[in-house]
What does this fold into?
Amino acid sequence: MDKKRRSFLVVMAQAVAASAMGGSIVAAFVEENKDKPLTLRPPGALPEKDFIKTCIRCGLCAEACKNRDNPMIIDGEKMVTLKMGAPGDSVPIGTPYFIPRDVPCYMCDDIPCMNACPTGALTPDMCKNDEGKVAIDYAKMGVAVIDPKSCIAYWGLQCTACYRACPELDKAIRIEWKQNERTGKHAYRIPVVYEDYCTGCGMCEHACVTEKPAIKVFPRDVFLGKPGDRYVKGWDTKDQQRIKNASTKTTTETGRSKENPIEELNQGVKWNDE
Amino acid sequence: MMSKLLKNRYLILRRIVQITILALYFGANAYGWKVLVGNLSYSKFLQAIPLADPFTVLQMLAAGAVVGVDVLVGAVVIAVFYGLIGGRAFCSWVCPINMVTDLANWLRRKLKIDRDARRINISRRFRYWALGTLLVVSFVVGAAAYEFVNPIGFFVRGLLFSIGFGWTLILAIFLFDLLILKHGWCGYICPVGATYSLIGSKSLIRVEHNHLNCTNCGNCKEVCPEKQVLNPVIYRKSGFINGIECTNCGRCIEVCNDNALKFSIRSFLKNN
Ligand code: SF4
It folds into this structure.
């Protein structure tokens, strides 16, 4: 190999090495930073994985939120829900989010943030009901979850702060009555969240009277479970639709069950044949 | 006084443009002005014209995003503007990081850092590798990778919303340019600038050199952030500065005392 060719190849290899090194540092950082499952997104947000790809971080949603038509003003201060993630905020950098305990989503009827989004990271498609009607009431920003241990209504005290704060009044949070056996003559009035109606706006978390809120909003993915195909409500035709494509196999197959049980049990056993 | 202003006319103009753009973004967010809303990754001009950063959009496409029409149109608008007219002007006329690095390099000259500093050798072409690598990384991680660390984003969002720890990166870039590598960030590393270099490679507005007036004083080379673009022309011949990394900042024109440099319009087809 002549000298020129060799030096060209070495320089190329150097560039590739430098790119690989820089690239993996950035990639590692991005992987770490984009994986923040507790981030609460504005209404109409795509599923997190697609949202991260699609949001261009322009801040038009946050701008629309700040300059909306009917801002909530508390103590002379305009309540701005949406923030843009900065380094150190524990959310993917540059993307919109909100912290309900600070400022919840006031669920504007005209959904200014969603309608301002140029990329489709926030889209009416993710904010409609089964009939295809778009309204803020069908937003799925998150779901409220109660910690019964710190909720004072569960102690038997009179509260209902979250119930009264909820914009989906008597739908997303309902009060259930139960006898208080400790006193024998009082009732518990316990808030219960109905996730079908909960938009995740966080008005309840904002209103909760305890030092650290006893009701909090989590992204739906984080909190909601999934029964899977094995369990179905036999009395509910809609639920039966859900398992239409379920597999009919009834046995569990693992790596182990492929082998005959005797072989499996005797694995590694040496018989003393002599 | 007047002559000093005149001597720095492009510098002053550039700062006015840069600061006006930032002020419009700021006003849009803080007071609801509707002139230029958004930030340098995407904005809406006069509520009608979308503008998008081509490199950001490329990364999003590499990541496999289904991007909205507005965003694609915005990227095309910007690409056409710089491609036809401005060249790499984004870097010196719009980008706020330019103010940081200009300050660093001005201080570097004033403090005569280069007299004692250790030489570091990296290729000016590193930025193109960075550009390519980041597109690959975007594809692999499924997100526009550079946007997680882009100091331009940190800067503008910092001004409008909050900067968090973002200031550390901006400070690091300042120190890098001041103490480590002269014109290091914009001249060697930044993939956004690399993208604009490629986009603007055939643009109309260029600096033109008149060899007959030149006294070989070297002022232009001293001040140019992308010296390699001057090398083929200065001391050698008359003609356009065709190097694609020229940011059209006009500093060379201002420091030239012999009227040997000026902005001019290059023919689109021939390269000089
Ligand atoms: S408007 Fe859309 S693209 Fe812009 S920051 Fe908000 S969610 Fe992201």
Remarks:
- Chain B touches chain A through 60 residues (CB under 8 Å).
- The longest strand of chain B covers residues 205-209.
